[in-house]
Specification:
Layout (H helix, E strand, L loop, with lengths): L15 H14 L7 E7 L5 H21 L7 H11 L2 E6 L4 E6 L6 E8 L9 E3 L2 E6 L2 E6 H9 L41 H28 L12 H20 L4 H26 L6
Antiparallel strand pairs: 1-2, 1-7, 2-3, 3-4, 5-6, 6-7
């Protein structure tokens, strides 16, 4: 739902939730900001420190539960929701008398809690991307996705006429557009397979599991080359097996969701997957008995 209030307009009355959101935005920015309209949205997808903590925390809990309790933890809806919110956090855009502001929204209540960045009204008239009924606008160094009707309400809340974009004068230095958060990335926007939706995350978990099986198979071949019977590997190798699984999964997720150049993402995948393969080979050699002749 959109929370918007436009002074001296013919907008319909706000619901109780809209009024609470608007009051929260005014409280976060202060009464002096004179917030005229507010709309919630989400920042464009990117891997964040919070997402790394979610994946790392669950991986540690998974390994600990399996090793000490002999149970397998399955990530539930809450884990996926927290991960989604970390990769694509909730944001709010508020229109004031002097410009617009990007606000951080609470994960639990969805209400504005603090101001992240401010910019001029012109940002609402300079969309970065538009698709599927949503428009991306840039506020400071972050792109925020808004529904088209929400963007229209924010634009109508601007107290002055839409900004005029003047032609550059001869010899004048052109105005630099604030860089995107993924300026160094190899693509301007994420392709569909790198979007942090529930279905794609589940698909990538499956791909990571497939890579894990492939690495185990390769390590068995290496173990056999060293004269080891990998079908009778000691149970003491179980803990290392789950460390290998966590390394492969972390490498693949970083390759998919890390907002970096393709080469950097490949280095991360190679480091994690290569380390997992090396560990798997060492474990097979150390914990598998020699082949009986």
């Amino acid at each position: 739902m959109v929370a918007s209030q436009i002074e001296q307009s013919q907008q319909p009355p706000l619901s109780s939730r809209q009024r609470r959101e608007l009051q929260a935005a005014r409280k976060a920015m202060g009464e002096a900001a004179a917030v005229r309209a507010f709309a919630p949205g989400r920042a464009t997808a990117r891997w964040s420190t919070g997402a790394s903590w979610v994946v790392g925390g669950f991986s540690v809990a998974f390994v600990a539960a399996f090793v000490f309790l002999h149970v397998i933890l399955v990530p539930g809806a809450l884990v996926f929701f927290v991960l989604f919110d970390a990769v694509k956090p909730r944001r709010g855009v508020a229109v004031t008398a002097t410009g617009i502001a990007e606000l951080k929204l609470s994960t639990l209540s969805g209400r504005p809690s603090s101001v992240l960045a401010t910019t001029s009204h012109a940002a609402l008239h300079q969309p970065v991307h538009h698709a599927n009924g949503r428009t991306v606008v840039r506020v400071g160094g972050e792109d925020v996705s808004l529904r088209d009707r929400d963007l229209g309400l924010l634009q109508r809340a601007i107290p002055a006429a839409p900004p005029q974009f003047l032609e550059p004068q001869p010899g004048a230095v052109p105005t630099q557009v604030p860089p995107r958060p993924d300026t160094h990335a190899d693509v301007a926007s994420l392709p569909r397979w790198r979007e942090p939706t529930v279905l794609w995350i589940l698909a990538h978990v499956g791909i990571g599991f497939g890579l894990f099986i492939a690495i185990v198979a390769v390590s068995n071949v290496v173990g056999a080359a060293f004269g080891r019977n990998t079908n009778e590997t000691s149970a003491e190798a179980t803990a290392s097996l789950w460390l290998i699984f966590a390394g492969v999964m972390a490498g693949w997720m970083l390759f998919v969701y890390r907002r970096a150049a393709f080469r950097t993402r490949m280095w991360l995948l190679g480091a994690f997957a290569g380390g997992a393969l090396l560990l798997a080979c060492v474990v097979n050699v150390l914990y598998s008995p020699p082949v009986a002749h």
